[in-house]
Each structure stands twice: as structure tokens, then as C-alpha cells.
Specification:
5-stranded mixed β-barrel, 16 strands, BirA Bifunctional Protein, domain 2, 2 domains, RNA-binding, 8-stranded mixed sheet, alpha+beta, OB fold (Dihydrolipoamide Acetyltransferase, E2P)
Length: about 450
RNA sequence: GCCGCAGUAGCUUAGCAGGUUAGAGCGUACGGCUGUUAACCGUAAGGUCGUCGGUUCGAAUCCGCCCUGCGGCGCCA
């Protein structure tokens, strides 16, 4: 009996005219009169309109079916019919309707604010929109695993609870840990650097926590980063990997999720050309020149690019752009100077990838300094206690090698691919400055 | 930390140069409808207008404090 049920997406194909099938799922919409009844049924795969008449079902079943609330779970039996009047072109002519568990009045109705839907995210996950986003999210993280494993990388899992900061103590979440205080991880990087001396090439897809007081549509307090770290690799090689990775992910989404992109109104013609185009790689210094010549914006050399400048820069491109060699002064302690760079001042062996359409930085990465004294001095300049980083410095004392890595903001990438207005919809249960529920 | 915007029924909102019982749509309840597309028609219930205080004969409307939320800047992925 159980095996007789089929998925909606499997029956919504031509050639099934008149076929008798059993479906089960949830009531997505209902309409009708006292003789006709329309139930749009939803399962994980798709939706289909079910049509029932009082004559076919009999008074008792008809009245039971008519009384079903939205989101009641039901199983149905009927014959398939191609009909232009049905949304989606196919419908099921009902012969039987059996409630599994009738729903109470569903709180989500026609008009809802974005915030109301986020308050009810536990129920809104059932929407076509969230269903589509979650499917794409699954493709994206699956593609990341596939991409790195195909290239001989090992998955390496970092600790989530960490004793000290990696980039600026002010954005750390404190955790009561027995009788001490520790922190939620901001990046796997320090641990990844330890691991490459064993595994050489590693990656992860892990949660990251940042207590930044940023209230924007691009920030989450808990988000997922897909990182990589590789021994014997320059930052320029890491850039090549990063571009390949993002292209690979987009190709996978285009391959698997065309229906979902359509539901999200995330026009695939934005994404398709990306696969055949070159993605520019420019230096920070060149970026300043573009800003001055094409946008009339004067940025003092040495200042980090701010959001308005990044957005202005991206108006000149329709693909992601990688900007490398930012001024060393503005960069974190572990990013080494590139002595070969052609720039007005010292620049770091580092890069950011900026997404088009205003979605901002999706990747940040760099080569990692291997010079113990350079790191120590940089740490002191940032006001950190060098002794806290003793084990990290050990990695330079025992057979250090050139190595690089980067982190990809999974939700920012998903938000861009899905053309979302807000990054909060790129993750099932968003955590922000003000939101910790549901 | 800084700068904007908002808070009126379960939800989405109108009303805001102060003036009778604060309107509507959706949802809900009941009734009607043989093909609907978050249908349509009718009836009904549903509101301490975020809080506290002030101005006034009179405050949803004007003023002030506070609370809550949203977005943006800085910072970041």
C-alpha cells in the first residue's frame, strides 16, 4: 500500500493521460463550490491541482474534503488529466480523498510581511519559495564537496569552540565553558593551517559566528563558510581555484535547479553567460584607477574599499570580479607582503571576490605569512598577545611551506544565485543581531 | 557606534493641515455558486491606534521620553 504512492513531479509529464495514481502530501490551496472542489496538493517535489465533484466523491467524502484547511496532510487517489485550465497543465480527477491529519487554521495567508514570514519560518519553510531556495542550497553545498573531492582535497572539520580570536576580538560570541569563557569560531583558518601539514589540501563547509553589529540585508550572525587551505600554493593559484569553484557551483545549479530558479524569478539568463566569460582579476591599484576614470570617485591609496566603492566598481562588470593586492596596512596579521607587486606602497598577497548585482564580497582569501617575526610584529601592532598564538607560530617553526586559502560565504553566494532581496532567506533559520527565533 | 524609516483587527493596510460610531482587503464563522487559478457574491464577529507622559474643549493624528522592529553606514563572507 505504502509503495503505491508516487511523487507529484513524476506524474506531471505527458503520456500519463487517464493513469490512476495515489499521491500524498499537504493541501496547498483550496477553492470550490458546493458541487466542485479544487485542492492544490503539495509534496516535496511539486504541486498539482486535484479536482473533485460531489457526484464522483459522494456527499460524505466531498464535505470532508471541502472542510480541509490549508496544510492538512492527505492522501488522494484519482486519474491524471492534461488540462489547460489547471495550473501547471496537469490535474488529478479525484476518486478518493483521505485526511491523514487535518490542519488547524494555517497562520500564513495571502498578505504577509517579510518579517511575519520570518517569525513563522518553521511553517514558511513549506512555501514554494523556501522549498526552492533550500533545494538550491543543497545543490550548492553538494557541489562544494564534489568540487574539492574531485581535486583530491580532504574534508577537514575544525573546532567550533575556540579559545581565542582570529580576526578582531570585538566580533566574537562568548560562551560559558564550564568555569571559563571561550568563543564561537569565526574562521577555521588557524586550525586549517595546522592541518595542511598533514593533509596538504583541505576544505570544509562549516558554521561561522560573528557578533558584528551589522543590520543589513547581507549580514548574518551565524552563517556558513566554505573554506579551503592548501600547502605549496600561492595566492594567485588560490584565486584560480576560487574562480573555478564558483563557476562549478553555478554550473551545477543550472544543471539541477532550473525549475527552482524559475519559481524564484531568478532569471537563468543572468547566470548562463557567466560560464563562457572570463572573470576579471584586477589589482586594488587598478580598481582605484577604474573608480577614478569611469566613476569619478577619488579613493586615497591605502584605504580599504568600502561598500559604495565596491558597488561603483561592479557597475563596470557583469561577472564576479577578483580584486587582489590590497594595501598591507588595512589587512589582517597573517597576510604577507607581496614584494613583486607593482603598487605605490606595500600590498598583501590577498584577494576578495565581489559578486555582481550588488551582492558584495563572496570570497576573501590570501597567502599566509610564514615569517615568525613578521607575524609577531603584526600581532603586536593589532594589540594581540603573541603568546596566545604560540601554537600557530609553531607551524612556521617545523618545516613551513608556502600556503594559501580562502573562505566563501555560502549564504551570500546563494542569495546572489537565487536573486534574493535578503540574505536571511538563504539560510533556513537566520540568526541576526535581533533575531534568534524560531 | 552612527544615520534614516516604521509600529492602527490574526495578517496586509487606509486614515494623520486635530473634530460624530477608526475604513478596507485577506483570513475566520455562516450562507450561496458546476471549472476554480491565494476565485466570486452576501451576512457576521473581530480594534486598550506600541508604551508612558504632555499640549488641547477634543489626540490614531501635534510634541517629548522610552520600547520594539526594519534598512543603511562603518566592518565583514
Amino acid at each position: 500500500m505504502e509503495r503505491d504512492f508516487v511523487r507529484i513531479s513524476d506524474v506531471k509529464v505527458s503520456g500519463n493521460q487517464g493513469l490512476e495514481v495515489k499521491l500524498r502530501g499537504w493541501v496547498y490551496r483550496t477553492r470550490g463550490s458546493n458541487r466542485m472542489l479544487f485542492i492544490v496538493l503539495r509534496d516535496s517535489s511539486d504541486i498539482i491541482q486535484c479536482v473533485g465533484s460531489r457526484d464522483d466523491l459522494g456527499d460524505e467524502v466531498f464535505e470532508t474534503a471541502r472542510a480541509l484547511n490549508i496544510e492538512s496532510s492527505i492522501s488522494v487517489m484519482g486519474t491524471l488529466n492534461e488540462d489547460k485550465r489547471a495550473p501547471g497543465g496537469y490535474e488529478l480527477h479525484l476518486k478518493a480523498v483521505e485526511p491523514v491529519s487535518p490542519a488547524e487554521r494555517f497562520p500564513i495567508t495571502k498578505d504577509q510581511s517579510e518579517e511575519f514570514l520570518r517569525d513563522n519560518r518553521h511553517l514558511w519553510l513549506r512555501s514554494r519559495k523556501m522549498n526552492a531556495i533550500l533545494k538550491i542550497r543543497s545543490t550548492v553545498t553538494g557541489a562544494i564537496h564534489e568540487f574539492f573531492r574531485m581535486r583530491g582535497y580532504y574534508e577537514f572539520t575544525p573546532p567550533i569552540l575556540t579559545p581565542n580570536a582570529a580576526e578582531g576580538g570585538s566580533t566574537l560570541f562568548e560562551v560559558k565553558y564550564y568555569d571559563r569563557k571561550i568563543y564561537m569560531t569565526q574562521t577555521w583558518q588557524l586550525y586549517a593551517e595546522a592541518a595542511i601539514f598533514s593533509l596538504e589540501r583541505i576544505y570544509d563547509v562549516s558554521p561561522t559566528f560573528r557578533a558584528e553589529k551589522s543590520k543589513t540585508s547581507r549580514h548574518l550572525s551565524e552563517f556558513w563558510m566554505a573554506e579551503m587551505e592548501a600547502a605549496w600554493m600561492s595566492y594567485r593559484q588560490a584565486i584560480e581555484v576560487a574562480i573555478e569553484e564558483v563557476r562549478f557551483i553555478i554550473a551545477k545549479v543550472l544543471e539541477k535547479n532550473r525549475n527552482e530558479l524559475e519559481i524564484l524569478e531568478a532569471d537563468t539568463s543572468r547566470l548562463e553567460p557567466l560560464l563562457s566569460k572570463e572573470w576579471p582579476v584586477i589589482t586594488y591599484t587598478e580598481a582605484l584607477r577604474i573608480l577614478k576614470e569611469k566613476m569619478g570617485m577619488d579613493v586615497t591609496w591605502g584605504k580599504d574599499l568600502r561598500t559604495i566603492e565596491e558597488e561603483a566598481l561592479m557597475e563596470n562588470f557583469d561577472t564576479p570580479v577578483t580584486v587582489l593586492q590590497y594595501p598591507k596596512e588595512a589587512m589582517a596579521f597573517y597576510k604577507p607582503v607581496d614584494p613583486e607587486a607593482d603598487a605605490p606602497g606595500p600590498v598583501a598577497k590577498c584577494f576578495d571576490m565581489i559578486a555582481p548585482e550588488g551582492y558584495g564580497e563572496i570570497i576573501g582569501g590570501s597567502e599566509r605569512d610564514t615569517d615568525v617575526s613578521a607575524i609577531s610584529e603584526a600581532l603586536e601592532r593589532e594589540g594581540e598577545k603573541v603568546e596566545n598564538y604560540d601554537w600557530y607560530l609553531d607551524l612556521r617553526r617545523y618545516g613551513s611551506v608556502q600556503h594559501s586559502g580562502y573562505g566563501l560565504g555560502v549564504e551570500r553566494l546563494i542569495a546572489w544565485i537565487c536573486r534574493l532581496d535578503n540574505i536571511k532567506d538563504a539560510i533556513p533559520f537566520p540568526r541576526t543581531l535581533t533575531r534568534v527565533t524560531p
